[in-house]
Amino acid sequence: MPPIPPLDPRIKLRHLTCFIETDRRGGVVPAAEALGLSQPAVSKSLAELESILGVALFDRSRRKLALTEFGAVFLRYVNASVSALRQGVESVSHAHGADAVVRVGALPTVEVEVVPRAVAKFTTGPLACRVHVESGPSSHLLGLLRAGAIDFVVGRMPEPEVMAGLAFEHLYTEPLVLAVRPAHPLLAQPALTLRHVEPFPALVPPRGAIIRPTVEALLLAAGITRLPSEIESVSNSFGRAYALLTDAVWFISRSVVAADLANGALVALAIDMAASHGAIGITTRAGAEPGLPTAALIAAVRAAVADREGV
Question: Helix/strand/coil (H, E, C) string of 81-128?
């Protein structure tokens, strides 16, 4: 068997981390801030890496850096390599008795109910260890998942076009609701439809959020091309506070406001939202073998969903 050609020794881990973060953050300056490095240091690392490879990895003709075709291909391999290296380091560290950590991404859909119950269950089990919960929009969490910075994501199923290299386990389906304060004028409106919502401020997920296409599809089906007053946010705490303070209508997954709906703090408008049902589950890297603590937390998520549904 012929010997495996060695990796170019000039390529260092700093080159790869600078490359990954620059792509993830969309520029050298935010990448430098995330890595705790100076902007010139990151720029130098990228220039060295491109010189070693002999190709441009970024198209610098735009305001925001974008990957070239070479860069997009290289990124897939770099993400896999850095993720594997991180897992190897953690495995060795755990074998020597260092504290284990499971990193889970929680989309807004599940960060109020499912994930807290799962973490509570996990921390009482035999494989309990430190848990890091990362929240944010789907694009942010899936980027961390691909890079190996988190172990899995819980929430709505991503769009098919971004699922390359990922696997999804379906757990349950859930609709959106239109949540308002108890004194909202629309609660007195007979034969309520989405067209009645149009004059009011709307709390909606930002473009790029996983439920944004569902919201837009609902509006288009009702003949609404755009809402005149939109407030975009993925923050559940802001959405709740704003809905209670104003006459805004909050487009939100039912589980996020389940407790408020149950105790009457918020009310769901009587509009048919059946078309908004979406699959909720666990997204992982395809082919990745979870460590024992990660597998235990995934099992706790499944158990939390079963408890939630009364199974």
Answer: HHHHHHHHHHHHHHHCCCCCEEEEEECCCCCCCHHHHHHHHHCCCCCC
**What local confidence, expressed as pLDDT, does residue 311 receive?**
44
Contacts with 113 (C-beta within 8 Å, 6 or more apart), sequence order = 255, 256, 258, 308
pLDDT for position 96: 39
pLDDT digits (tens, 9 = 90+) for 180-197: 999 999 999 999 999 999
Q: Is 189 helix (H, G, I), strand (E, B) or coil?
A: coil
Question: Which are the contacts of 272, defined by CB distance < 8 A and separation ≥ 6?
Answer: none
Q: List, for residues 247-280, the tens digit of each pLDDT value.
A: 999 999 998 898 999 999 999 999 988 888 889 9
267, 179 Cβ separation under 8 angstroms: yes
Question: Which residue matches tokens 């939630």?
Answer: 308
- Enter the tokens of residue 152: 């899995």
How are beta strands 267-268 and 176-180 bridged, if at all? antiparallel
CATH architecture of 99-172+279-308: 3-Layer(aba) Sandwich (3.40)
Q: Which amino acid belongs to residue 300?
A: A
* Tokens, residue 6: 């060695």
Decide: helix, strand or coil at residue 213.
helix
Q: Which amino acid is at 90?
A: E
Given CATH 3.20.20.140, say whether it is the number of domain 176-276.
no
Residue among 83, 110, 60 nearest 13 (CA): 83
Give the list of residues 6+ apart from residue 301 with CB closer than 8 angstroms, or none.
114, 115, 118, 154, 171, 282
First to last CA, the chain: 55
The CATH fold of domain 13-81: Arc Repressor Mutant, subunit A (1.10.10)
Flag whether pLDDT at 49 surpasses 80: yes
13-25 vs 28-35: helix crossing angle, rounded to 10: 120
